[in-house]
Amino acid sequence: MLIHSLDATSERTLSTMAALVDSYTLPTRELEMVSKTHDDMFLRPANEQSGERGCVNGEKCVCRWLAIFRYGEKCKEAFVCREFLLPSQLEEFQTSGKLPKVHGKCLICCRYFTAYTYTLARNQPNFNPKSSICLQAFGNKIVVDNPEESALSHSNVVGGEEGYNPDCLLYIDEKWVDVASARGDLGTLLWRPVVRFQSSDYEFVQDTNIDGGYRVIQVKLGSNNGAPDFSRYVRIH
């Protein structure tokens, strides 16, 4: 399923929002903006010798399973992706060597979890992320006070040299405004662009410059919608 948050700025959606102002609280919160250029740094295995950590999901990391589904259970392409850091967290790590107190997911698992949580919220009228529902079902090991906030950690830059193509954003159905879950922390999705999860957006390549030899490339997600530069990689067929 393709979900597109840029439609939240359409005339029809904004008119619907305006009509609800007097009746409902539609919360939003500031999110750190993240570019495609930043994201591309995290689609590889962690370099543990330099202090980096792998995805908290370990063997259940979605990145690892994407490779297994494509190439087989014992494929050499499968790896646990690097823990994703926001720009501010990366700056802290590069300056002081400190990582976030809570061990986080990789970028691909973050996107999967966001899409998974939104799908639950959109399709289950009684969705309550603070109850004992199966938000942990796909292997998420993080225990947080507010799972909604955990599911939406950042927003994405759209357009420009380092941004994403609008067509690759999470699609938010405007009818979701009528559902109670849209008035929680997840309601921020109505106002902030967030990249979708779709397995075909990722291609595994061989990179001799990293430990383990394999990484992931985002395919045609950049704002110029051009083919990625494979000049330094070996494509896997």
Textual characterization of the structure:
The model is unreliable at 132-139 (pLDDT under 50). The chain has one domain (5-235). Strand 3 and strand 4 (214-218) form a beta hairpin. It is 24% helix and 8% strand. It has helices spanning 11-20, 36-40, 62-71, 87-96, 107-123, 147-151, and strands at residues 32-34, 154-156, 202-206, 214-218, 234-235. The two termini are 25 Å apart. The strands form two sheets. Strands 4-3-5 form a three-stranded antiparallel sheet, with no helix packed on it. It is α+β, with helices and mostly antiparallel strands and 237 residues long.
Keywords:
237 residues, alpha+beta, two-stranded parallel ribbon, globular
In short:
The chain has one domain (5-235). The strands form 2 sheets. A 3-stranded antiparallel sheet has the order 4-3-5, with no helix packed on it.
- How many domain regions? 1
The profile of the biggest β sheet is: 3 strands, antiparallel
Going by helix content, strand content and strand pairing, the class is: alpha+beta
What's the β-strand tally? 5
Mass-distribution shape: globular
Radius of gyration: 18 Å
Low-confidence stretches: 132-139
User: From the structure provided, what is the oligomeric state, counting identical versus distinct chains?
Assistant: single chain
**Portion of residues within helices:** 10-25%
Distinct helical segment count: 6
Order of helices and strands: HEHHHHHEEEE
Q: Biggest sheet: strands side by side, in what order?
A: 4-3-5
Indicate the proportion of strand residues: 5-15%
Average residue-wise pLDDT: 81
Report how far the terminal alpha carbons are from each other.
25 Å
